[in-house]
Amino acid sequence: MSHHLVTCSPCYHSHYGHPYYWQYYSAPYYPMVCSSCYQPLYACQCKKPFSHMNLPQEIAADASVTTKEAFIGGVKDVSLSLEYLKTGTSPSLKVTITDGGTTAEWNIATIPDDYQIKEHFTTVSPGAVVKLEVTDCTARLRWCEVVSC
Fold this sequence. Notes:
Elements: H1 9-12, H2 22-25, E1 52-61, E2 67-71, E3 78-86, E4 92-99, E5 102-108, E6 116-124, E7 129-135, E8 137-148
Antiparallel strand pairs: 1-8, 2-7, 3-6, 3-8, 4-5, 4-7
């Protein structure tokens, strides 16, 4: 009993008269171990990207807690967003950013009666310290830190 590959006629024979097993030659060669760490490919961590996660952060200040401060962490620069609402007769708001020995302040002395938001009003590097100070208003400073998992 002879064993034959069941294929169509043009695929069965090569130019040399031998059966042409196309399935053995159609896929490229893949090594079984990493060439850098020699670990099996399924366990190798050399070329896999680090997974990152966005971690929302915020500080809030109001009449009961008028000053809040936070440290900016993560692996990338963050974009700050500020939300505020007038609650008294003479409101004021101050955001202080200390980054690498440099201090920047953002003050607002006239706050409208309705809810206000300043999205992406500045970008801050990891390691910076942000401080929120309020009088006769409620405010939140928000950002998302990118952290490695």
